[in-house]
Amino acid sequence: MPSLTDLQDEYGFLDADDRYRLLIDLGRELEPMPDALKTDATLVRGCSASVWVYPTVRDDSTLHFLADSNGAITKGIIALVLLTVQDRAPDAILGTDIEGQLSPFDLRNQLSSNRTQGIPNMIALIRETAQRYAA
User: Fold this and answer.
1) Residue 88, exposed/middle/buried by CB under 10 A (0-12, 13-18, 19+)?
2) How many domains does the chain divide into?
3) What is the longest distance spanned by two Cα atoms in the chain?
4) Where is the Fe-S metabolism associated domain (predicted)?
């Protein structure tokens, strides 16, 4: 996966269609999520497309999230969100301004409200997970 900074630089130069393609490509780079983990318990509520997020704890006590969506652009959005927190300690995730890191992408103005309505719920689920595992 590219870094968030690299994506911001590239995103700023693209037109709307190419931004969609970038998000779709980013979603394709997500680690595959086994179908067995796509359950009601891992479903993010309030998204127009189905989005599943499943946390795992690595040996070094960092959180690693598996995620998927049945919508290509939505899958790219969750991949973008995960770039801000993936493989970080719970306390570091809680200290991360996820919305601030995503603000240069201006998703609310670039995408339809249907595609962005679930972003706060994705972020809330990640924060709740980090809170459960925080020291």
Assistant:
1) middle
2) 1
3) 43
4) 15-128
- Asked whether the beta carbons of 126 and 98 are under 8 A apart, the reply is yes
Q: How far does CA 122 lie from the centroid of its chain?
A: 7
The range of the structural domain enclosing residue 35 comes to 4-133
Residue 119: phi and psi, rounded to 5, are -55, -45
> Rounded to two decimals, what is the model's pTM?
0.91
Residue 90: which CATH number? 3.90.1010.10
SS3 107: helix
- In this predicted model, what pLDDT tens digit does every residue of 72-131 receive, in sequence order? 999 999 999 999 999 999 999 999 999 999 999 888 877 777 667 788 999 999 999 999
The active-site residue, picked from 47, 53, 80, 102, is 47
**Residue 88 is a catalytic residue:** no
